[in-house]
């Protein structure tokens, strides 16, 4: 006798809506068929189906373990509230029900169904599993998924019991529920000296999910975030600073940080990343801090200016620039212009200047063209002008680009600015710099990049020539630039770069990957090249090719995805799955042939097969449905993908029958 009986008969019952027949099989002694019947009943809404599933949960013995687990899973999928007492009874036997898989199914089912009974059952199980850390963690995760305020008292009690061992799951669960009653306990965890860094961060993350400030006994709950505000983890510090910036007392705390750090640069309670976090909050919420300064005479602006000028930490200077620009606006222009001289903060300051209500365009132009100014000042001025975009900036930028006496870094910044401005009149000058091999390679690379941003058609031959440049950076920038020229000639050149790697050097890989990205951006002309690459793309780049094809709606792209998805080479397996998923998202009948190629009966079932079933079922044409049914009939075991497909098809047929009856 076949160990796995055919499922065709059970499928016919499911498609015909034969609840009674499936219930008989589910209760039968043939446990292999019973499992399959139970799985099929899980997708049926009839009350009789639920009755049979609940009965199956009570079947005793090792032989029926699979039936019980399938019934539990099916009841959870249905959201059957009548099953909660039975499921809780299984959970609270005081020992693992059958195995970890069954336990996970129970937690998942109770979480899906929800309700007070499910919460109470899980809390009882949590109390009974204090010595089994893994099981307790699973139960806590289930309670977190339920998001029920009724679980908070039990979780708070568990928090103190787990605190010496590992309170992390309970902390996360309390945050997920978001009940204000958890605020005091979470603050205590965040403030405790012995709290692990990951637990402290989780506590602060959880506080973000609660109303702030939470109701606590102390009059200033913000003080309980002091330890988190100077934590070694910058992420924890930023989270704490975000909470503090929401209240007056909290902003006072941040002011103290800025003041102490300005007066004592190495103050132990004001490490650099704490100062950065305080500055970031001023930049994000300038109105709140401006109110404080106006009414309390706190000198935020002078403190920020001090940090911008004198801090020894570049990150602090950059953060201070952003905060100063947001809080002081145009009144900080002079200080910010001076700060362009700081090579480690130049770019940040340039962005701040460009974002001012009235950017100092004339001052920036004067600094850009003044040969006596420092390189950072001129570079920053070019960047700020490119972000501001004044028409009068083009001519000075072109003059700087053409000035061979100017530092290379300044000329490169001018090239970047012209490209960012998409100034078509600059294409000729940029092309001249690009073609001149006497010019520094770094400058030529930036000029090529700018040509790509502008995209003037007459510069394409030059960009194509740069693709073969011996200078690595010029070559990479040229490849990226070709994506801005949507013509077959550029597409063909990019395809050759993907297809013709003579060695496995890191540089080859980088250029080939850049070529694929450029083809993805190019649009229509790239499609023939992308489809031609399917049969010869290197395995490590196949996933990127899938991404490019997935963005294309044409039938050719669909067929190419099908070829990638059905490749059985082990080294391309991840990209096969990716291609199958992309293919399953296509809902047009043209995708049926490619999806059918995914669904073949070779004794194996995996992600590509599941994707094929989903795609064919969603298309729903007669041809697609018949292929799904034929595949399922020959299956030796019904997996979740089969069951979902059969449920969708059965529901569609039932709806069609109902509509026919009405008409």
Give a quick summary of the entry.
InterPro entries: ARM-like, ARM-type_fold, PBS_lyase_HEAT. The chain is an all-alpha fold.
SSE blueprint:
Layout: H1 8-16, H2 19-26, H3 31-41, H4 47-57, H5 65-78, H6 84-91, H7 100-113, H8 116-128, H9 133-146, H10 152-162, H11 168-177, H12 183-191, H13 197-208, H14 226-229, H15 234-244, H16 248-263, H17 272-284, H18 286-296, H19 300-310, H20 314-328, H21 333-339, H22 346-354, H23 361-369, H24 375-388, H25 394-402, H26 408-420, H27 427-435, H28 441-454, H29 460-466, H30 472-482, H31 488-499, H32 506-522, H33 527-533, H34 542-550, H35 555-565, H36 573-584, H37 592-598, H38 607-619, H39 622-633, H40 640-662
Classification by helices and strands: mainly alpha
Largest β-sheet summary: none
* Fraction in helix: 55-70%
- The total beta strand count reads 0
Round the mean pLDDT to the nearest integer and report it: 90
In angstroms, what is the radius of gyration? 33 Å
Q: Which consecutive residue ranges, at least 5 long each, have pLDDT under 50?
A: 1-5, 94-98
Approximately how much beta-strand content do the residues carry? under 5%
Task: Count up the helices.
Answer: 40
Pfam family, one: HEAT_2
InterPro entries: ARM-like, ARM-type_fold, PBS_lyase_HEAT
GO molecular function: oxidoreductase activity
Protein name: HEAT repeat domain-containing protein
């Amino acid at each position: 006798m076949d160990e796995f009986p055919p499922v065709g008969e059970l499928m016919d019952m499911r498609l015909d809506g034969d609840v009674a027949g499936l219930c008989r099989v589910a209760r039968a002694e043939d446990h292999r068929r019973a499992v399959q019947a139970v799985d099929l009943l899980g997708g049926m809404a009839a009350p009789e189906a639920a009755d049979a599933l609940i009965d199956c949960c009570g079947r005793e013995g090792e032989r029926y373990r699979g039936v019980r687990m399938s019934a539990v899973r099916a009841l959870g999928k249905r959201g059957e509230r009548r099953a909660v007492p039975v499921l809780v009874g299984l959970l609270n036997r005081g020992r693992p029900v059958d195995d970890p898989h069954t336990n996970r199914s129970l937690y998942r089912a109770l979480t899906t169904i929800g309700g007070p009974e499910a919460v109470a059952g899980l809390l009882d199980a949590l109390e009974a599993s204090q010595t089994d850390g893994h099981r307790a963690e699973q139960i806590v995760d289930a309670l977190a998924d339920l998001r029920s305020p009724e679980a908070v008292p039990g979780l708070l009690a568990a928090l103190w019991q787990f605190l010496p061992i590992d309170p992390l799951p309970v902390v996360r669960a309390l945050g997920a529920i978001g009940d204000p009653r958890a605020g005091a306990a979470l603050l205590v965890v965040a403030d405790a000296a012995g709290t692990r860094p990951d637990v402290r961060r989780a506590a602060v993350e959880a506080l973000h999910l609660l109303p702030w400030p939470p109701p606590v006994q102390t009059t200033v709950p913000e003080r309980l975030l002091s330890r988190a505000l100077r934590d070694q983890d910058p992420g924890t510090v930023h989270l704490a600073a975000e909470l503090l910036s929401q209240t007056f007392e909290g902003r006072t705390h941040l002011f103290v940080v800025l003041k102490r750090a300005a007066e004592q640069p190495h103050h132990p309670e004001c490490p650099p990343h704490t100062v950065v976090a305080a500055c970031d909050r001023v930049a994000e919420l300038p109105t709140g801090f401006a109110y404080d300064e106006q009414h309390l005479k706190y000198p935020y602006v002078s403190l920020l200016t001090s940090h911008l000028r004198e801090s020894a930490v570049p990150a602090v200077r950059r953060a201070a620039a952003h905060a100063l620009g947001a809080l002081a606006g145009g009144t900080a222009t002079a200080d910010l212009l001076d700060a362009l001289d700081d090579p480690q903060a130049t770019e940040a300051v340039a962005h701040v200047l460009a974002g001012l209500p009235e950017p100092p365009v004339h001052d920036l132009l004067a600094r850009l063209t003044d040969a006596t100014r420092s390189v950072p000042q001129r570079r920053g001025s070019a960047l700020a002008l490119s972000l501001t975009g004044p028409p009068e900036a083009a001519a000075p930028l072109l003059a700087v680009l053409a000035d061979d006496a100017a530092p290379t870094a300044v000329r490169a910044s001018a090239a970047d600015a012209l490209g960012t401005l998409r100034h078509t009149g600059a294409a000729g000058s940029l092309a001249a710099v690009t073609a001149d091999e006497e010019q520094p390679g770094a400058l030529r690379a930036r000029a090529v990049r700018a040509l790509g941003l502008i995209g003037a058609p007459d510069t394409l031959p030059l960009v194509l020539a740069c693709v073969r440049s011996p200078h690595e950076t010029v070559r990479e920038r040229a490849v990226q630039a070709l994506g801005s020229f949507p013509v077959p000639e550029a597409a063909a050149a990019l395809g050759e770069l993907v297809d013709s790697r003579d060695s496995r050097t890191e540089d080859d890989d980088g250029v080939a990957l850049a070529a694929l990205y450029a083809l993805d951006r190019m649009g229509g002309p790239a499609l023939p090249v992308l489809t031609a690459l399917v049969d010869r793309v290197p395995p490590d780049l196949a996933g990127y090719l899938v991404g490019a094809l997935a963005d294309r709606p044409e039938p050719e792209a669909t067929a190419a995805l099908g070829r990638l998805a059905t490749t059985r080479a082990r080294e391309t397996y991840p990209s096969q799955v990716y291609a199958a998923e992309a293919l399953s998202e296509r809902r047009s009948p043209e995708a049926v042939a490619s999806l059918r190629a995914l669904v073949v009966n070779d004794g194996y079932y995996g992600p590509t097969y599941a994707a094929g079933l989903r795609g064919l079922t969603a298309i729903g044409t007669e041809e697609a449905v018949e292929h799904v049914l034929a595949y399922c009939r020959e299956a030796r075991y019904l997996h979740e993908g089969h069951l979902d497909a059969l449920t969708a098809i059965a529901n569609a047929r039932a709806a069609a029958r109902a509509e026919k009856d009405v008409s």
